Structures
1.
Amino acid sequence: MPLNTKAPFASTAPAGIALAVSTLILLAGCANTPAPGSRSVTIERTAHGIAHITAPDYEGIAYGVAYAHAQDNVCQTAEHLLTARGERSQFLGATGTGEFGLGRLPNSQIDLFVRNHMDDAVLARAADPDREVRSAMRGYVAGYNRYLQDVGPQGLPEACRGKPWVRPMMASDLSRTTELSMIQGGLAALAPAVLEAAPPAVKTSAAAEAVDPQQAALEIARLSFNANPEGGELGSNGWAFGRNVTPDGRGLVLGNPHFPWFGTNRFWEMHLTIPGSIDVMGATGGLSPTVAIGFNKDVAWTHTVSTGKRFTLYELKLDPADPTTYIVDGQRKKMTAKTVVLPAESAAAGAQPARKTFYSTEWGPVVSLPRAGLAWTSTTAYAIRDVNSLNTRSASAWIKMGRARNIAELREAMGNQGMPWINTIGADRSGNAMYADLSVVPDVSAQQLKDCAPSPAAAKLFATAGLAVLDGSRAACDWKRDSTAASPGAIPPARMPVVVTADWVQNSNDSFWLANPHIAAPANISPLVGPMGVPQRLRTRSGILEIEARLAGRDGLPGNKMGAQELRSVIFRDRNHAGELVMDDLAAACRSAGASLSADQQAGCRALSAWDRTSTPQAKGAPLFREFWRKAKDLPKVWRVPFDPARPVVTPAGLDMATPATRDAVFKTLGDAVAAVRTAGFAPDVALADVQARVVKGQKVAIPGGDEFEGVLNKVESQGQPVIGPQGYNINFGTSYIQVVGFDERGPVAQALLTYGQSTDPASPRAFDQLRLFSEKKWLPLPFHRADVEAQREGAPLQLAY
């Protein structure tokens, strides 16, 4: 349920009260803390602005991280703080929009949701009690504020220079940003449904209450963390190799997260050192003092978004006389109503301030998804319960992961269930590899899903849309409370899937089922963790096929082991797996059809028959195939070979061009794709580089890679405008921080890229300065060892007292 069921929104309280609350939170971890200014943190920069931060404790580390990150991204952080405070419309206008959940919402809608959900007192009580984490949070707030003080309002980048909304950070702000990160795969993704919920004005008929599973599947998929058919879903490739398959017998890791190129989910590279305590390097998101994806001298790891469900819906049985009263075990319970009104200055000229009354229950806030058949009617309503709300454990987990000496310790570090919505793939110097989904998932068994389905239609929603709907009229349908779980109602680590092997594991955002197809999947896992026996993403299939071809010595490279050099080559081949699956059949049908096809269809046949079936910048016809397959993949019975759960890596496959209806539909789609490419101003055989590029410092830089549905491992997308336009594709999503990490006698040997660079300030030399490396498939060796840092250091070190 919303966090603010008892306390007021902090920003509406008098400034003195808000400051007092913040001060109390800051002082909570101050016992035995040295006097301010008695310690110092050192910030060094190496090639492309990678920050190396050294301090005697984690408070200093966080102080340095916040300061250095602000040097590169202060305006991004300041704007995100507006989101966390619920003040976007007040300062950026009610009619503007901002990033929220998995998309964009009007500023006023964001503010209403945030002001309803957040409760600073509740967040403070839920804070991780770990002293090091509290010190880090305190240091981060102080480091960011020190940067604002040092540069002054007029020293900021143009985007936020002199703006009244750039204000010092408070401890409560940082807690709010953590909460937003935790719930972005659940409650925040369904924020529009929370905002839409309102009691029905009149009684509704039974027909209006019926659930349409197909429409629900589409609606829920749009909101899903990793199943959005319109693109923009968070995802990644993570591979790890053990001693049996690497040439030196040591572990090897690929990390390839697919995240937004703008906003606080944007990665930033850093190296953190507390002498004698921690030495870890990699990348993190905005407003985080810990390495999220990275390595130390013994262990490397990455994350991928998992298939686990972060919430369930509860179907509420309502009192026929009052749609704001629901019934549990025969007892009537009144919903909690709260009206949020935005400040007067947040309204558009001449308009009244936005207001909204939110309703919540013991199961969580009420939602309404009428397009999915889940409307609030006179007899039924729905509430959402998010298992990640108040999950404050991630920082502690990542700190411990940064200190892990082997895979066993890496796994143990995640035992606090701080991983909110991600898998972990890692390997150690001894040659152990691991896949683990130790994320936070509601503890609901397959039997409980069946027993607690409120209706056959609701039960069908899990099969069609992956949406668990439980019966909110029975207390027995509450999540199980296992005492070994770190969070009440979550599945404990012992019942989550983990695979440790000396061979290999992978994940590309499908479930744990095929972490390694040759290793039996863990048994008795809740369906809410992920499905088994279902068709896999083309990226998953492509990755497994690439790995198996390499280890069989049949991919054109010498030998049959996966070393770092081979791994870097494989991930950047940009093979288009959809093209590999269907082009033989399409080309054969083109030859048979000949002159019977329209002019556009014949042009499409010529372009795609000559296409090399890759998504490299040089590939002519790659954009046409993307526009063709965007629609063709959804044609009825398009596959010649249907999915076979016994052969999930190679099925479905082929185009069913022998069936007249399918053949006609495929050729029509091909002609339509040619017309779309021509309408955008390009020839059917246009090369990918001509339509997929970014201008950096006046020079056009081609961007390799393909869209999710094409099965290209190097995934890039145009979120918000996926189809080709006059400017081609505006790539703003996909491959971001990418690392390949192995080990030698000294420790890690790492090469990496950050596609968009360290800075979001267009005037900064660090903005998109690594994009050309990405375009040319060149890797940047990461300086981990002290001698390497000193050899690559650019400029003088910066020392800050704290």
2.
Amino acid sequence: MDVIRIGAFELDPSERSLCRAGRPVDVGARAFDLLLVLAEHPGKLVSKAMLLERVWPNLVVEENNLPAQIASLRRVLGAGAIRTVPGYGYRLEAPVSRSSGNVPAPAEPPAIPAAAPRRTGSAQLTVLVGRGEDVEAVEAHLAEARLVTIVGAPGVGKTRLAEEILARVAPGSTALVPLAAVASIAQVPSAIALALGLSLAEEPDAFAALDRTLGATRPLLVLDSVEHLAKDLVAPLSRLATRAGGPRLLVTSQIPLGIRGEIVYRLAPLAVPSSGHPDDCAASFAAVALFTQRAAAADRNFRLDGASAALVAEICRRLDGNPLALELAAARVPALGLAGLRDRLDDRFRLLKTPAGPGDARHGALHAAFEWSHGLLSPAEQRVFNRLGVFPASFSLDAAARCVADPSIDAIEAIDLIGRLVDRSLVTALPVDPPRYALPETARYYALERLTAAGELASARANMAAATLHQLDAAYDEYWSMDEAIWLQRFAPEIDNVRAALDWTAEHDRTTAVALYGSAWPLFLEADLHAEARERYERVVRLLPGPLPRGRLGRFWEAVTTYDSTRQCDRARYAAELSATHAETSDHRSRYYALMQLALNSRDHAQLAFAALSTALTLQDPRWPPRLLMHGALTEASLYMDRGDVARARDASRRAMRLALSVSERQALAATVRVVELDLAAGDVAAALQLARPLLLTLRHAGRHAAQLELLMLIFSALALGGEVREALDAGAELHALAAQTDPGKLYSVLDAMALLACSAGRHADAARIACYADVAHEAHGVLRRGLIEERLRADVTSRLAAALGPGWRDAGERGEALADEVGACALALGLRG
């Protein structure tokens, strides 16, 4: 087969060898195949699709494998040997000829004179991972603009991306000009000249001398790390970039220069898998690929497999996909292992250190990179950045401004300073509406370190808690009237900030802790975090009494009655009474809600329940938000249903449904559950199931666990009453699993139905044990008299057990092994283990 000459190289396809001056050159199998395909089409565009098909046949590979192999070829053949056509493919620019048989090795090309333009920078580049699209995008920008600035956070890989682009450009004058160590703007022209191998005349205006020396040449100048010189560079770079025939400029910086005609390319961190992403897909994310590559280089026994993928994904997430942090972390794998590395990331600045490189000491360690960036900020910018570190999650601009403001920084200035930190890539502006901002986790740890060193951590956390309380008060006010989906989109991202504020204030500020708990209940409720909210009650209630306004105390007890409603009825009644008592005299809405909660949780005390309902209705105002009025109508329906007044219960249910439809689809679904309950209470099992079955499918899709759990309990009860044993077992298994995951305490209300199912299956001894435990469970939950549906179930169970076991069935049930809890009782009825 013919030997192919490519410039000074000989490529022999039959021997699969590449030589220069008779000496073999190792480029790797994939790179060799790529070069062979390009050599078959010299001077012609070869598409990426063709190259992928020829070099990786029948394989699915990451697209960034292709530019990585091209880059390795350029390092051997020369930077201009292969040309990128952005968005399409590659073209071999070097001269190509063919000859048969042995060919004499060409002489080595003459050395470039010392004064000739040259490229400076890293001689050996590692394979660039996950940046294929970034490389092509920046190359496309350079083709249309004279000045492109790559902007990004410390350690995100701005310099490495610029080096890769420099290695891929066409032949000509190029230079990488590192400016991190250049302290003065006056030294920049000489640094550029030195990188290009030029001599500058001694003139007062060194930039003008540089401009004349460059003449008509159009070198590509990569000015690396200019953030500390950015303001002073604006004028001279404007002149260079606008002169006809002048150089092309690729700049790396943490902030844009703000020059007219500048294209700013913001370099994002490497992609990381989300917390819910399947582990077997982790390797497809660039951050995981980079970590894996570097860890394997450090430890030849390292493998990314099913056991390690979850740990690697978590490490990559916690390091924000930051390439510098990932490389430093991967180097620690041989010593610590993945689990040890993950567990030590809270102390990442001491952990992720490496000896400083000779060219740029600030890239020697992650901490040094942030020290450099922080040192470029003004004192006011530093204070704002440090204080933002107390937010563990994203934050709104309003909350951030309230947190960082002080006597020297008002809210307006705080917003401006946060904007400057976004420009400097130290704060991330999230692409959501309304706008939210965040510090990457590594930046947040650095900010907390600075706060601690300055002795300002406690005051910053107090400010953050106050700002969070302000957010929660706004969320509470808007909860009753705002569209539910819009409300959740706006306030659900605050949940981690709320948790952090509650944790800190529980130890340091009892007054604010109680206030936070009170205003947080709509957020915990709509986020289906009932169990967490009840667990936090045990911590916060110990902080009472305190110097709180009546309204704050009323809202605290309002939260308690909401979380415990129909689950722990005695505590919910007690909390509702206190909430109504402490509500501000003029706050009729809060008193109305508390009285309705008191009525709902007093269903086994009819006189108390209807007295509370009557008082609440005297306060009711038809102009109130529909959500609040809907709650009242649903409570009315429940009370009238228990009393057997079906007509009035249906009337109240219809009102609730109309109000729910004006609120949101989610509320309409919740109101429809009440209609199912009403049909079942009226004895119409068929109608209840006809409505409930399709409703359950909708609730599963909507992800409303609380409403889904309530509906499943009704469906299970209806199937048990109707004798549909097989379907009841399926519904019961789903109910058991969902309750165990979300709210097992709610299962007490279906224990009678569970006993009836055991009876229907002929397991009367088990049914007796469950029926006895049902009485214990109802009493433990503060329910002394069952509702209408439960009474019907209980009567059926009692009749069947008396017929099967005799009038002493209760003694037989109590002699059996005691049941530990509702989950175990249901498992016994359903024939489940555990």
3.
Amino acid sequence: MSTAAPEQARTDLRLVPAALGSWAAVLMGLWVGWPAAAILAACGALVAVVGAMASGRSRAPWLGRPRAPWLAWPRAPWLARGSAALIAAGAATAATALVTAAQVHHATANPVRTAATSSAAATVRVKIADDPRPLRQPGYAGRPSGADRYAVAAELSAATVAGTTWNTGGRMLLLVPADGWRGLLPGQHVTAEGLLAAPARNDLTVAVMHVRGPPRDVGAPPWWQRAAGTARDGLHRAAGVLPEQSAGLLPSLVVGDTSGLPTTVTEEFRAAGLSHLTAVSGTNVAIVCGAVLVLLRLLRVGPRTSAVLTGAALIGFVVVARPSPSVLRATVMGAIMLLALLLGRGRSALPALAVAVLGLLLVDPELGVEPGFALSVLATAALVVLAPRWSAALRERGVPAGVAEALAVPVAAHLVTAPLVAALSGQVSLVAVVANLLAAPAVAPATVLGALAAVLSPFDSGVAELVVRLAGPFVGWLVAVGHHSAVLPGAAVRWPAGPVGGLLLAGVAVATLLLLRLRRLRTLVAAAGLGVLMVLVPTRFVPPGWPATGWAVVACDVGQGDALALATSEPGRAVLVDAGPDPGPAQACLDRLGVHRVPLVVLSHLHADHIGGLAALLDGRTVGAVAIGQLHEPAWAFDQVRRLTELAGVPLVELQAGQRLRWPGLSIEVLGPRRRPPPLVGDDGTPVNNASLVLRADTNAGRLLLTGDVELAAQAELLASGVDLHADVLKVPHHGSRYSAPAFLDAVRPRIALVSVGAGNRYRHPSRETLTALSSAGATVLRTDERGDIAVTGGPPQLSFVARGDPRPSPGHPP
């Protein structure tokens, strides 16, 4: 019988209170303010004094005299045994609270912070702290590597506001244009001009600056950053021999460089629970250092030399991956994982983790509010404490060692981090464990070969490309796992977001684990879980009455975006209008409907919440053509659509008012825009919305009006044109926003109004005024955030609908 379990049962928890106290001190200082942190420092010092008094010594050397009677302390054995932990917790909390209070006070008292509150113009001299990262635009799924705005973390050296110059430090976030900024390296000093703004987060950032123009007085980067940049660029070039998605994923997997990562891969990995593979994590560090150790052992190198060479490899990896706070955090966590692997137990690894948390928070208190830091700590704790126990338990039951560890690691990591992920994202992945289990065999070889290619690329690009080709099958496997996991129906389920949702899921997880420890209830819990799998999950994936018989149009539940399927009379074929914001949902909706061939995908306009799922559609089924309107803006979105269609060999066509399209059982007429939209100037919001294609479709269920995101100006233009807007079914413009004219809704007079909208979206769509106007006109309003996929069936005068999200959809509800 294995002896691992008894040893693991004596897990050393004495330093855990110190780490938790330090974390609480950081949160108190950043969220409440530096005075609260100062008060907590005093409380921590008091706790340390109490712990010292409880140690039972007859004299107090730190007082320099015998202890006074009023200082006498009862000799409770349990208190004496815990005095060391009490002293450590108090001292650690006091130290971290003092450091946090000092840094928060410096940030809040900084004169640049005061200037930022009034949006003052400024000229600053800063040192670049990290690589420029493409900005994710508000309301969009994110821009590709050709984005025209970047975020740059920087350290402030001096600032000039209204003729006054301050030589002061502090952290800044620069929002910059691509020109002149995109290729900067960490360590370079630059001068920038722009408008200051107050930071929106509770961290140590002094100010945010919206920069105008390229940087000035650009200094040279340190030699090690130039060397790291050369290796990263070499890896990028070598990865170019792989397919586009694999070429973007390899640098992201190895050194956390996501500049070339396609948006499709990012979204699919998020849905599949594989996002940790697109950033430098402790796993990367453990893999690289573990590979070096294995190689040195094979070469029979001594332990001291091995330790030195492994340390050198670790330093080199940190330099290439950039010594940013996130990478340093990952390095420390990876070292702890490697320690647990070498020692084969969690007794020594958990105190090391607690010390690492304490040290990192003392060096950089801002890590305490970073979700990545919390996820790293939780995952590392699961891997060094839970995974060995569960693996040993499986081995005792006859499971092979390799299989037991492969099962225990992803399950432990997912179970521990799931509450935090749910609190942040508002969803729980049902495929994360299986996806990580399938991906695990390919992660190590892809990482090691990618790191080797990065090292070789400055010396011989041909050899680096050869190594990348060897890594290609492993990276391709990761892309395939992410894609097929993301498009599974019900890959993720909605869950309450925020602290309440996280605590609720944590309570469910803890209760389940406690019940599983009781032998008498274990069978009952297993039977209940089997019942969930056999009953609740299938009814979620294929609920009764779905797909609806004779459906004519289905508004797919794709979140905050649009995707509508229009049926033809040919089985398995449907026209799709818009593709939703993400790769998975529209694809899954068509799978549930049994649609395998899409003769036409119409993109009403080129905002990301309408084109985000296009890549998955082109990759997952036969598409005849992709149609867009006459406005090819935003430029990045048009370039992305054009590139995707070219890669898939699918024609890209342009529609304009007056065109008619026909298929068996379906005809579509383009009603708008009535004139060619003018070139885009500045704003890419309302003008693009008003350039949406407006379609009138005749189906077996009657007439449909599909309006994209048209707002007041485009609606007025349609009304003025005199075109017949009356329809039985209306796809409500712009997710039901308040920019719908009552006269326009009166002209349509729909019996059913479909609102494609995401639950809890930050735009507060749909508008109460728009819903009231539709209901007052006699329309039945159906929302995808409340009903899921919604199918319109029947036909005039027997028009009805079926909602997939209903508890048990009936064959049809009359409107």
